[in-house]
């Protein structure tokens, strides 16, 4: 019995030694730090991305942070080239970039970008000051000055086209969400067309300082938009903003976190694991992360999966076929 016990202890010690060595070896190709591309301050990408980067850095024991960028389109380019290791993107701009249709680099197929995990849906919603008298899309006057967010952002890419489809004539303005919120309050613009996860920090700030209207799409407008663009109907719950007295009808597009496909497999595996297994922590970073759950992995029908992320999903009962992995 003593001999058997000694053998078992020796075997266990050897196993621990080998495991420890494997972990050390697995980290040998990890960078000392990482940066995630987000978007402008005042938007959900920046709040979500900077909180996520800090959370991952703390748990993996490496340095990490967020970088302010122009949003999903620019993030695709920066991650593809390796200027950034990680980024946040929306499925519409991701598809265009993958197909070589990015406005930032026409003809360049950005195919070195891999999906990591689902984030949340980006609703497209319209905000105005209450004293503007605008209560519907049809009320927006000809020549209205509309802020569409940072140039090249998801909102700037799709919302102007949507407005044109709905017959709205406007002057196009760009800027960070925080800046556009200030311009709306100061009367420098008439409308802000937001595309960001809810609650949008800039809208929450606006309704504290001013009386606002959050404009929804009617059924005919919804039908036109969903038929013409890669979006789906989305309901903004009344509880999202104190301004809303009832649920508000919008449209939305899914967001995913992405990695440069050359990032170490074990590093991406650990980052995916920490995110997918700790939703409470993610929700504490931003309420939009309520949908940052494994089941929503099926919302990615655009990007190939990073091998590290795919390994976590496949180990945990979610099927990602080999043909879907980079």
UniProtKB/TrEMBL annotation:
Pfam families (UniProt xref): NMT1_3 (PF16868)
Record's signal peptide: 1-24
Coiled-coil spans in chain: none
Keywords, comma-separated and alphabetical: Signal
InterPro entries assigned: TRAP_TAXI
NCBIfam families, per the entry: TRAP_TAXI
PANTHER family: SLL1037 PROTEIN
Protein known as: TAXI family TRAP transporter solute-binding subunit
């Amino acid at each position: 019995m003593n001999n058997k016990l000694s053998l078992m202890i020796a075997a266990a010690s050897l196993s621990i030694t080998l495991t420890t060595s494997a972990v050390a070896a697995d980290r040998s190709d990890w960078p000392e730090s990482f940066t995630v591309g987000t978007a402008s301050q005042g938007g959900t990408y920046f709040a979500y991305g900077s909180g996520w980067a800090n959370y991952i850095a703390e748990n993996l024991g490496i340095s990490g942070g967020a970088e302010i960028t122009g949003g999903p389109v620019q993030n695709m380019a920066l991650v593809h080239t390796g200027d950034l290791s990680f980024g946040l993107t929306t499925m519409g701009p991701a598809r265009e970039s993958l197909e070589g249709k990015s406005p930032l680099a026409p003809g360049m197929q950005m195919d070195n970008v891999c999906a990591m995990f689902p984030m949340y849906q980006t609703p497209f919603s319209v905000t105005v000051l209450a004293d503007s008298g605008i209560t519907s899309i049809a009320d927006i006057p000809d020549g209205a000055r509309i802020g569409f967010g940072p140039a090249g952002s998801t909102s700037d890419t799709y919302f102007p086209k949507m407005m044109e489809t709905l017959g709205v004539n406007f002057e196009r303005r760009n800027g960070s969400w925080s800046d556009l919120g200030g311009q709306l309050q100061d009367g420098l613009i008439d409308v802000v067309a937001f595309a960001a996860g809810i609650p949008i920090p800039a809208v929450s700030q606006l309704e504290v300082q001013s009386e606002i209207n959050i404009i929804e799409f009617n059924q005919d407008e919804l039908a036109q938009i969903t038929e013409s663009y890669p979006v789906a109907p989305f309901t903004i719950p009344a509880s999202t903003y104190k301004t809303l007295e009832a649920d508000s009808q919008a449209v939305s597009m899914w967001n995913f976190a992405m990695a440069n496909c050359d990032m170490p497999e074990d590093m991406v595996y650990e980052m995916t694991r920490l995110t997918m297994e700790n939703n409470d922590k993610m929700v504490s970073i931003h309420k939009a992360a309520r949908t940052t759950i494994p089941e929503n992995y099926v919302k990615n029908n655009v990007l190939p999966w990073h091998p590290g992320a795919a390994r976590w999903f496949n180990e945990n009962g979610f099927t990602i076929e080999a043909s879907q992995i980079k």
